[in-house]
Amino acid sequence: MIDNEDSDDVMLLGLFTPGWMGAALVVLALVFWLVASQNADECASKACPSGKPKLMEHECLCVEQATEQVH
User: How many other C-beta atoms are found inside a 10 Å radius of the C-beta of residue 32?
Assistant: First the structure.
């Protein structure tokens, strides 16, 4: 799945690429951002046995907050 990291990478590449190619990469980054947003919404609508669904590392993962271990 496309996530925000992909759009960030393409945007940075576009900002440092001169001319029309850089502009095309910025537009592509905006498209990636839109797709990533839709993927994040789709992921958030899924159910997890524990924790909350979150789009990370190109996957929809169930994430829960870590607690301190008691010795």
Answer: 20
Which of 33, 40, 69, 45 lies closest to 57 in space, CA to CA? 40
- State the Cα–Cα distance between residues 35 and 68, nearest whole angstrom: 36
Shortest CA distance to 54 belongs to which of 37, 40, 38, 34?
40
Q: Is residue 71 part of a domain?
A: no
**What is the crossing angle of helices 19-44 and 4-15, to 10°?**
170
Neighbours of 28 (CB within 10 A): 15
Q: 44 in a domain, yes or no?
A: yes
State which residues form the domain around 8: 4-63
CA–CA dist 34, 37 (Å, integer): 5
Query: Tens digits of per-residue pLDDT, 46-55?
Result: 999 988 999 9
